[in-house]
Amino acid sequence: MTDTIDYAARWADLQEPVLGDVAAYERNVELLTRLSTPAPERRLYKPLADAADEYVRWCQSPHERIYTGMAELDAEMRGTAPGEMTMFLGYSHSGKTLVLTKSLIHNRDKRILFFQPDEPRVLTLIKLVCAYHGLAAVDFEQRIAADDEEAKALLRSTATEVFPYMAVVDNPLSTQNMERAWDEATDEWGASPELVVVDFLELMEDLEMVPQKATWLKGFGRRHDVPMYVLHQLSRSSGADGKQVTISSGAYGGETQATHLIGVRRKRSEIQARINELRTMKSTEARDDEIASLEYDLKIHQFTVSVNLVKNKRPGGDLLPEIDFELIKASGQLLPLGTDLPRQYRQQSGLGGRAVVTHDRRYEQQEAF
Fold this sequence. Notes:
Rossmann fold; elongated; 369 residues; 9-stranded mixed sheet; alpha/beta
């Protein structure tokens, strides 16, 4: 309709209106004022039809999603899509970084922008090298210290060939630094990151409350249309150290913004806490039997990390009870455990088998027995 309006004629009418035709003059003024005023920018309103287009894109673009590399979780979560946030919950030293490392290795072909202000990027690289190649960290450190050329070449090739598109930002974590790092990484790669990782949520310096930090991060992911992995450290006041993570474990803030919540813990911490509690009680046959049973479990779970799917907003997806992984302590690898006893426990107890400490280039488990 606007293309057929003769603006020149309308303005002429405004300048020399027909004598006595006040109504026509007022109509012209109202129409031209409305047409010449820019439409207000709509920041919140979006037609529901847009959601249909977004869902079609989601269904037809599984390659844009990020998967954890843990089959049971990936089957229920069906990936973390652009604009979504998956949060890893756990107490301090619960194994969150170990689980994250496993996922980073699984996504090593992706462009990853990793915010890690809590430790220098050198440590991040060493963890990736040892976990990917199945190397004992102490031995590798000694080889580098001895100027072992093969070890140094492996270190450099892992950074340049195995993880060619990973940028680790170990500067202070702030909203400004995140936006700047995004721009710099995009400029360097010639394409935007495919995954943004924050380790961990509480370290954001320029926002005060945890819910505020989580809300800003979710908005960051939506603005840049990128999947987000965020580590969230639980307060010890929310439960005993090592206690299984539930939907209320992080209730003091942050967890409501996530599409998925993955709980991470070391069962050994809860077992040890219970043993310590029992030892403060008067000795009885029942108490002593429980301590003996727990001490047996403790020997097993010194080699495990457990994860569970606490929250899952994916339609048709379910939650998952705890899944145990064997932690290869020397290298930091996490291996599927199933119903078996950890290989390291079997080796230590003389039950046969040996610890698996090497993997092929595809990071697939090699059976050692």
